[in-house]
């Protein structure tokens, strides 16, 4: 699933979280069951519920897991946090971990390291990704990277080779000629619209030697970059290379509404850990490659990102038991077999050894992709500032849609993105 959170949903969640911080987060009463809240689809839920049951059987601790879609998750988590009823264990994203940590909505875990949490052999980059201000706030549940899903059957039907990791943005335009001529499946396009997806913008900037944000939380690109970004996608749209704005608007968040599942496009930006889940939803064969390059031979846009974290609620009265669950989730061999690589490549070598032989073809593709990014791989970027989520929801996503529907020109959208982002950053 491409990460998406509407402006209204983000602001609801953000305001509730801010209210919790302003009022002070009171410790929850100790309870018999550990509450776990996470986002994801049914496949992730089935795996997580199974491991929760395994932990209960081995520890005697009752678990109460609950899952929601991405867009429903953040408002509910923030509202529960504001009401002093936050879960004991929450799934956390790299984009929001700084905000939740600085507002004490999640707890530092350092006191449990070496005790309930055994992290001696944990991948250092993944461990570092869960730190805020030098303290550990999140345990990475897997390493992943942005990726492009490829419907290989659609390319075979059109009669051209599917792209590889060497592909470029210019190649999308060339592939459009073949797709538009073949007119398969009622007008399937080459690619979904990536103009309003923060990960694609970030990857494109990194290939140009820039970032979204500086280490001190300021904007790291300018109007010229933003205008060129929206112009690039406007040209692809005009050439019929990407889906229409009307079709893209059908994507409401769940995997089932995405362009590759609906059969609207043969390529779609996603994450490496989601190939397995998407393959369960389509009959066509899916593969995975990197994001397009800005020119032949240019790399460095990708990085191995913590796919998501488990964090312990700041108000939880069951922090040690929650830490024990986190340790079980990342290190138990039988749990690892159940979880596979749905949340990314395991961060412990011993767990990877257990998981590798159990993976099906798509799981192996995901593992090999993350392990062999080659020249696509760059350094881990600095953590985004707390207001990055608002910038994504209220600007990057919204402006991309406005350009797609013709409500704004690429030039105006580029100017609005930079001025709006600077304004939000100045207020945070």
TrEMBL record:
<dbReference type="InterPro" id="IPR006059">
    <property type="entry name" value="SBP"/>
</dbReference>
<keyword id="KW-0574">Periplasm</keyword>
<feature type="signal peptide">
    <location>
        <begin position="1"/>
        <end position="30"/>
    </location>
</feature>
<dbReference type="InterPro" id="IPR006311">
    <property type="entry name" value="TAT_signal"/>
</dbReference>
<dbReference type="GO" id="GO:0042597">
    <property type="term" value="C:periplasmic space"/>
</dbReference>
<comment type="similarity">
    <text>Belongs to the bacterial solute-binding protein 1 family.</text>
</comment>
<feature type="region of interest" description="Disordered">
    <location>
        <begin position="407"/>
        <end position="428"/>
    </location>
</feature>
<protein>
    <submittedName>
        <fullName>Multiple sugar transport system substrate-binding protein</fullName>
    </submittedName>
</protein>
<dbReference type="InterPro" id="IPR050490">
    <property type="entry name" value="Bact_solute-bd_prot1"/>
</dbReference>
<dbReference type="Pfam" id="PF13416">
    <property type="entry name" value="SBP_bac_8"/>
</dbReference>
<keyword id="KW-0762">Sugar transport</keyword>
<keyword id="KW-0813">Transport</keyword>
<keyword id="KW-0732">Signal</keyword>
């Amino acid at each position: 699933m491409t990460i998406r959170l509407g402006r209204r949903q983000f602001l609801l969640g953000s305001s509730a979280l801010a209210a919790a911080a302003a009022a002070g987060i009171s410790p929850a009463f100790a309870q018999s069951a550990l509450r776990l809240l996470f986002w994801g689809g049914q496949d992730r839920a089935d795996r997580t519920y199974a491991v929760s049951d395994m932990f209960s059987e081995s520890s005697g601790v009752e678990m109460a897991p609950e899952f929601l879609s991405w867009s429903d998750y953040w408002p509910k988590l923030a509202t529960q946090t504001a009401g002093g009823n936050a879960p004991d264990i929450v799934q956390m994203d790299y984009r929001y971990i700084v905000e939740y940590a600085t507002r004490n909505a999640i707890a530092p875990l350092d006191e449990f390291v070496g005790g309930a949490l055994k992290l001696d052999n944990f991948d250092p980059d993944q461990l570092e990704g869960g730190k805020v201000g030098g303290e550990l706030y999140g345990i990475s549940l897997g390493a992943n990277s942005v990726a492009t899903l490829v419907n290989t059957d659609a390319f075979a039907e059109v009669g051209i080779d599917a792209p590889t990791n060497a592909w470029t943005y210019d190649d999308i335009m060339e592939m459009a000629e073949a797709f538009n001529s073949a007119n398969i499946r009622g007008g399937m396009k080459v690619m979904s619209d990536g103009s309003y997806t923060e990960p694609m913008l970030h990857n494109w900037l990194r290939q140009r030697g820039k970032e979204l944000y500086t280490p001190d939380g300021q904007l790291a690109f300018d109007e010229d970059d933003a205008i060129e970004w929206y112009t690039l996608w406007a040209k692809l749209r005009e050439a019929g290379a990407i889906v229409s704005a009307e079709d893209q608007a059908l994507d409401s968040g769940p995997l089932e509404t995405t362009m590759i599942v609906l059969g609207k496009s043969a390529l779609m930006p996603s994450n490496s850990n989601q190939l397995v889940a998407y393959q369960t939803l389509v009959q066509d064969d899916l593969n995975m490659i990197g994001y397009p390059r800005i020119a032949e031979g240019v790399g460095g846009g990708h990085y191995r990102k913590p796919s998501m974290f488990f964090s312990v609620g700041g108000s939880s009265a069951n922090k040690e038991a929650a830490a024990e669950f986190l340790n079980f989730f990342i290190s138990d061999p039988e749990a690892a077999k159940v979880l596979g690589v749905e949340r990314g490549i395991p961060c412990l070598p011993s767990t990877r050894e257990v998981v590798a032989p159990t993976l099906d073809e798509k799981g192996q593709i995901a593992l090999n992709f993350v392990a062999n990014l080659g020249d696509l791989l760059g350094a881990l970027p600095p953590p985004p500032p707390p207001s990055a989520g608002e910038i994504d929801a209220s600007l990057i996503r919204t402006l991309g849609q406005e350009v797609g529907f013709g409500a704004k020109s690429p030039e105006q959208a580029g100017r609005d993105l930079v001025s709006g982002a600077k304004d939000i950053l100045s207020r945070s």
